[in-house]
Amino acid sequence: MPDQNSRPAEPWVIAFHTHCFPQRIAGKAMPILMDECGARAAFTNGTREELLAAMDRAGIGASVALNIATNPRQQRAVNDFAIALNAHPGLYAFGSVHPDAPDAVEELRRLKEAGLRGIKLHPEYQKFFVNEPRVYPIYREAARLGLITVFHAGADIGMPVPVRCTPAALAEALPQWQGAPVVAAHFGGYILWREVLEHLCGREIYFDSSYCAGRLPLPWAKEILEAHGANRILFGSDQPWSDPADELHYLRQLGASPEETALMLGGNAERLLGACRFPCDD
């Protein structure tokens, strides 16, 4: 990580979508996840230390580390890790709740009291459809608490159809947040980018750019950017699954103005998170 007393180079870069795992389980979790998605290798070993080192190499000043409760029993342990991770300078950890956990709504309050700024929901791993009314109380409580809700959006290469968070279904659910911040990962919907243009562009929702370098054709990404606006795009890398340097290069190839690029690289995230540059009083 950069020296905490130094000023980061302009623009300040915040990777809004990254992951890391507790040291004790990273060695087991990473091969399983790679097998599920057919990956030959990951960019890092999935630990906090590797995340921080990769940030340093790429010139990233801060990262949002997204955690996912893949079953109800795991919910508290995942969030305990997120709370501890959130205390590390340069990291903003998001927690997670599982829709089948009987205390999911109460857990949101615990996360808010612990100082976390948001949650990650993954409809494919957590086996719910984004527009199911049974999960709406979670959305409404997250909005009431001022938490940011991040979704894995679109297809997941490790999961079978049907896709549980399509752009159309997410658009249907959006009124539940009543304007509170929602982020659709992977430029609004992995692989379903033409549907993103139809159903989500121009709506009150953010897209992150994670895992799109070499996957989302640049002309399509430019269409989404033009239709949605740079003020609602967040840089993300999806580390350890992608090289943040590649993802940064991709975002800079979108042809946006320097001012728009600065918003996407960090300005929008800074506003959403209430983040501050090093040194930080947070």
Tertiary shape: globular
What's the oligomerization state? single chain
Kindly report the spatial arrangement of strands forming the biggest sheet: 4-5-6-7-8
Note the total helix count: 11
Order of helices and strands: EHHEHEHEHHEHEHEHEHH
What portion of the residues fall into strands of 2 or more residues? 5-15%
- Main sheet? 5 strands, parallel
Describe the structure.
By secondary structure, the protein is an alpha/beta fold. The chain contains eleven helices and eight strands. It has helices at residues 23-37, 48-58, 75-86, 104-113, 123-126, 136-145, 167-173, 193-199, 218-228, 244-252, 258-273, and strands at 14-18, 62-66, 91-94, 118-121, 148-151, 182-184, 206-208, 233-234. The strands form two sheets. Strands 4-5-6-7-8 form a five-stranded parallel sheet. A three-stranded parallel sheet has the order 1-2-3. The relative contact order is 0.16.
Summarize this, please?
The chain is α/β, with parallel strands linked by helices.
Summarize this structure as a short list of keywords or feature phrases:
282 residues; alpha/beta; five-stranded parallel β-sheet
Map the helices and strands.
Blueprint: E1 14-18, H1 23-37, H2 48-58, E2 62-66, H3 75-86, E3 91-94, H4 104-113, E4 118-121, H5 123-126, H6 136-145, E5 148-151, H7 167-173, E6 182-184, H8 193-199, E7 206-208, H9 218-228, E8 233-234, H10 244-252, H11 258-273
Parallel strand pairs: 1-2, 2-3, 4-5, 5-6, 6-7, 7-8
Helix pairs in contact: 4-6, 8-9
